[in-house]
Amino acid sequence: MNQKTHSPGLPFMKMHGAGNDFVVIDSRGRGAMVTPALARALGDRNRGVGFDQLAEIRDGENGADFTLDFWNNDGTRAGACGNATRCVSDYMMHQLDKETVNLVTSRGGLFALRQADGRVSVNMGAPQLEWDQIPLSHPVDLLHLPLDRDPVAVGMGNPHCVIFVDDAEAVDVAGLGPSYEHDPLYPQRTNVEFANLTGPDRLRMRVWERGTGITLACGSGACATAVAAHLRGLTSRRVTLDLDGGTLEIDWREDGVWMTGPVAHVFDGVLSEAFLKQHT
After folding, report:
1. Among the four 17, 159, 192, 272, which has the fewest Cβ within 10 Å?
2. What domain range includes position 228?
3. Is residue 142 part of a domain?
4. Annotated catalytic residue: which of 81, 87, 161, 223?
5. What band does 7 get if pLDDT is binned at 50, 70 and 90?
6. Residue 85 falls within a domain, yes or no?
């Protein structure tokens, strides 16, 4: 796209990690730019740009290289987004000429690094394994929720409902996902993962994301699924997950749940002044 440097409007980037796609807005030095109305408008794949999540880069806090906020395409806030964290970390490592970065999200401080093969790893922090941290509406057995299909509850800065099935390919994700997302047991709604074991320490996973719907991948969901699989005795703490859009590697270490996967910066664009005036 032939673009003049003084063009009015708001610059953005389009990125994806294993097919999980994002709009990224760099608001450093300007203060937060994204509002619920703008996130909803941008998330519309016909009238906006379209994304699974929106990530906004803000100035770093407490010595971090940058701060990162997340939005769903229905205009609600997302507490965590692992694939977007990896993609933006890769962008910031190039910006800062570094091989590692420290960042802050609503879950606290995180750390990311670039692997020799170009993939990016991020420490997503320790899983939340208490009912009120996830959160759930009341105490229950997290490894065996009182819901159909015997799910597992895990928090990764956002809530997850992990369901182990015989064949994830055969699951009606669009039909089942909303009922779990909106179940009263999850007062802030939940992401829903359907997974089955395909080999030693390997899982096939499909996902319904709260506020978005079916996505090709979910980084925090992959982390939650790996944690749930280990707690159920299905896998070790290091797991490979095959998602609709690609493969992620999860390693639950003492210092947190590490996720490694591909990153892609697809294109840059500028939101027009007319679009911004209409939706802000």
Report:
1. 272
2. 152-254
3. no
4. 81
5. low
6. yes
